[in-house]
Amino acid sequence: MPFSSPSSWFTSSSTLHSLDNVIWQALTTRQTQFAESCGEARRFLREITLLSAFREPSDKGYDSLAELVGPGGTAALFLDEPYHARPRWELLASPPLVQMVYASGNQGVSSAASAPDGVIELGRQDSPEMLELATLTKPGPFGTRTHELGTYLGIRRDGQLVAMAGERLKVPGHTEVSAVCTRPEHTGQGLARILMTEVMRRIIARGETPFLHVRADNLRAIALYERLGFSTRLRGHLALLRSI
User: Fold this and answer.
1) What value does the mean pLDDT of the chain take?
2) What is the tally of structural domains in the chain?
3) What's this model's pTM, rounded to 2 decimal places?
């Protein structure tokens, strides 16, 4: 059954919020340098992430996206409701998704000017380990160049990257906290909270508001995000598709 929601991923242009149709907005505003386009569709460079979007979920939008990714190409979309079969596309997965936004004023975010001990910045040299960790824990679409989208922070134990978090989608006034993940043998130590809080601190220091996306069935993560001051704004679906 589709989720009911207080708003919609897709909204008329006259009432468009910066977090509505957020992938499209990111690719047409603050992250155009990472975009590829065809007709009514855009996507991130494939080495960065599978996230893709169209102006609206019409036949023209889906056809444009099929041309953009090419035969056998994959795309990840944010949709209002579960994906319905379309020509030229095969559905690979469609989990329910929640968009959450930080409520300013939460006291859990430190105003300290430096990162906590043990938190390190990650970059190009760490990309193979970041991809390995994301593949293991599946926080969402992640590529060899995802780290280029913003600041990524991590924690190592005995030289191994065991937890990370960073920034992904960026639209006017908002930056997404993403790729929050911890190796299974290191969960329960508060590492995700430490990293998220530091990523959020840096976003807030720039005068922006953090937001995030999480699978609706990941109740443990949602509980953490609520404790950090996030509240649900939208409910929808992530559709992972392959062009045929």
Assistant:
1) 92
2) 2
3) 0.90
Q: At what angle do helices 219-227 and 191-205 cross, to 10 degrees?
A: 50
Indicate the range of 14-23, 34-43, 63-72, 101-110 predicted with least confidence. Answer: 101-110
Cβ contacts of 94 within 8 Å, gap of 6 or more: 79, 82, 83, 237, 238, 239, 240
What is the residue whose two structure tokens read 């953090």? Answer: 210
Cα distance between residue 174 and residue 31, in whole Å: 12
Within the chain, what is the greatest distance between any pair of CA atoms?
A: 53
Q: How far apart are CA 164 and CA 102, in angstroms?
A: 19
CA 148, CA 131: separation in Å to the nearest integer?
13
Residue 1 lies in a domain: no
Q: Cα separation of 134 and 180, whole Å? A: 9
For residue 107, report the phi and psi dihedrals to the nearest 5 degrees: -85, 0
Report the alpha-carbon distance of residue 113 to residue 136 in Å, rounded.
32
Residue range of the domain that includes 180: 101-231
